[in-house]
Write a structure and sequence with these properties.
five-stranded antiparallel sheet, 2 domains, three-stranded antiparallel sheet, 229 residues, 6 helices, single chain, 25% strand
């Protein structure tokens, strides 16, 4: 566990503004204040103009990050942590049979200084300021997982978690699209990785699942190869 230092290719000060977007209702309220200011004198007009202008700048200012900017920043974080995943998992790359893969899951802890936030993107998928980064490392004899929760706003990361499962004990890997859960079966034990959770209003957030689906397919291929050899 240590704070992460990686170049995200953007100004980190702009990240909180992405998640703290001004609601449309507040923009409307600012517009009403601006209209009222016409009838309360010159000073009132100036104050109304400044308030409304500030709200518009906050919502549409030139430093506003896009959904794609946040996606790209998370990818850079994930790629920068691959060596750390191998180190914590006590695995050398020479002892693996294919490159490690990663996906993002619902966080199981949060930064002590930054609350959980999420925002629905223009494509309908939610972006989160905190999520769990999970790696699947494909060893010759075992499947090793490494996970840590990360906050992109303050670059905090939580407790490391590494687990090892011998291929002979792994019976299946699947992704349930209805529940948005990646499930790894090892004998009678089922290890569950929920990709999505409920936001502040209780609504289940829609997240991208392509990486989890690819990992489920990768593990199934590995299991077939192991069983046929």
């Amino acid at each position: 566990m240590a704070d992460i230092n990686v170049d995200l290719g953007l100004d980190r000060k702009d990240i909180p503004a992405y998640f703290d977007e001004v609601p449309d209702a507040l923009v409307g309220f600012g517009g009403v204040i601006f209209l009222i200011s016409f009838f309360v004198g010159e000073l009132g007009f100036v104050l109304g103009f400044l308030i409304f202008g500030y709200i518009l700048y906050w919502k549409y200012g030139p430093t506003k990050l896009s959904d794609e900017d946040i996606d790209a920043a998370w990818v850079k974080i994930a790629e920068s942590r691959i060596d750390e995943a191998y180190r914590v998992a006590l695995m050398e790359k020479d002892d693996t049979i294919r490159d490690a893969e990663w996906f993002f899951a619902w966080p199981n802890e949060s930064s002590p200084s930054t609350e959980y936030k999420s925002k629905e993107g223009k494509d309908g998928f939610y972006r989160r300021n905190t999520q769990r980064l999970v790696y699947m490392i494909y060893g010759k004899d075992q499947l090793v997982t490494f996970g840590e929760t990360i906050c992109i706003e303050d670059m905090w990361d939580g407790e490391d978690d590494s687990q090892e499962y011998y291929w002979q004990d792994v019976s299946s890997m699947g992704f349930d699209q209805k529940s948005n859960k990646l499930e790894l079966a090892c004998g009678p034990k089922i290890i569950v990785y929920p990709l999505a959770g409920a936001g502040g209003d209780g609504y289940i957030e829609k997240v991208k699942t392509d990486r989890a689906t690819e990992i489920a397919n990768s593990v199934r291929v590995m299991l077939r190869e192991k069983k046929s050899s």
